[in-house]
Amino acid sequence: MERENKNYFERLGRSIKASVTLKLLSIFILMLLLLIPLSFVESLIKERESLRQQTVTEVSSKWANSQEIYGPILTIPVQKRVQPEDGSKLFKDEIHILPSQLNIQGIVTPRKLKRGIYEVVVYDAEVSFSGNFDSIQKVLDQWSDYEVALEEAFLTIHISDLRGIREKVTLQWNDLSKQVSPGSAIPVLIPSGITVKDLETIQPDASNAFAFDLQLQGSEHLGFVPLGKETTVMISSNWQDPSFSGAFLPVDRSVTEAGFEAEWKVLELNRNYPQFWLGNAHTQPLKTSAFGVDLLLPATDYQKAMRSAKYGLLAISLTFLTFFLVEIFNKRKLHPFQYILIGLALVLFYTLLVSISEHTTFNSAYLISSGIIIGMIALYAKAILQSILQTLVLVIILCFTYAFVFVTLQLQDYALLIGSVGLTAILAFTMYITRKINWYALSSEKSTT
Question: How many CB atoms lie within 10 A of CB 39?
Fold first, then answer.
């Protein structure tokens, strides 16, 4: 009886080992289990990207943050006395007037600061502002029921990070030099900036010209707001990889190996706020009309690594499929533990990719990492398959897989198309080479051996 039971379990064990269905099921389960370390790899990539961003923020906070400059805004205090039923009351307010013409010219000189293995882009900027205010009296006439304190008028210029000011600022107002004072007298409209008072030469019925220069430090971004009835901005720099951002793109640009030049032209009709208003209206539209240029280092390495990790299951599937077909066609068995080792090697590729790309370019890191993993798997496959030809086929498939993922990463706009066509071709090829396999006969043959 015991001998019969022993023979029964031996036959059952051989049947399980010979079952192609169970083999496929076990491979599928191993693939799902390998998604766990793949998720850890994705978490690692996010953590390293977050650490880089923290470094950028820390260095920028010590140098000067990104700068957004706009102005000047001419503010004229007004007041009106009303007679409600409970007595006379005095209401005070302010009329804000924007420039009729605003011209901005700037030269941006970037530099790289290092903190550990990370680089941060900062810059020195020399920016010149000029323009004029026309028809001030016509604006005041629209609020003729107010008493106008023209002698208390002042200009406010927004500078997002005042720590970046490197030199004393002097404003020319109708050919007279005016000193500026720190802080904003209209914090709702301009939360951070400088103020120019004592505009005693203001001419309500004529053109009032202004001009001033700013020497600023900043990080990564330099932006402006089109306050003029007609605003023109011209920026030049020796930075080779600018990114133009915001509500308006340049009407003319030139980007070469020597740097870039960009010109914006924005009209009053292009934005969603008027040339003058009473009170604190239009604060939000003012901010949303900002535009400028970003001087960012190519920070796509982590993004590319994350996207390549999304293809991890594809690499594992193709490699496991290759080993499985080798088992089928050459009647050579592989243990699930061997599949696990191969799968972990494929997962390790992404850790190598991230760590190496932090010290070199992404393309070089991809080539080095894929070469290491393909070499590891090739040597291991040669040992367990005992066949140079089969190992060579495996190496070709691995090279094709990593090359396919690499091309897909480079052509981001066509990633879906390339991915779909590639997967279709892989499936079609698999269907073709396995079209004559009798899976039931294969299992029965193995069970009788």
Answer: 12
